[in-house]
Amino acid sequence: MTSLKNAICTICGIIGSLICELFGGWSMAMTTLLIFMAVDYLTGILVALVWNRSPKSENGGLDSRAGFKGLVRKGVILLIVLVSHRLDLLIEVDYIMNAVVIAFCTNELISLIENVGIMGVPIPKAITRAIEILKDKDEE
Length: 140
Description:
Helices cover 80% and strands 0% of the residues. The protein is mainly alpha-helical.
């Protein structure tokens, strides 16, 4: 049993290392993007499941097809981030991936705020101000 556990851990480590290498290492920006994506997805599920007000389905309720589409979109976002890193390497710069990650973080944060708004949770001014700052950084 221990050897199976070691084999699984080794395989996961190799896959994780390869993914990190493809993205040029792991950064705070990537961690932030993944957290924003996960929280947005979770709040989207809650909006559909609890409030039945999802704009992604006809009846506003939970829809597995809409959920799958959301996961596919998030996967494609990660592919775009990967492509942007490769562009950085190709033209020997180091800002394209960061700009793309900031743009996607802004988009995820806006979607998250929309979900939280549907739930009736008040949005702190600090978060709306952070969205403005991220939009400004994205435009630069």
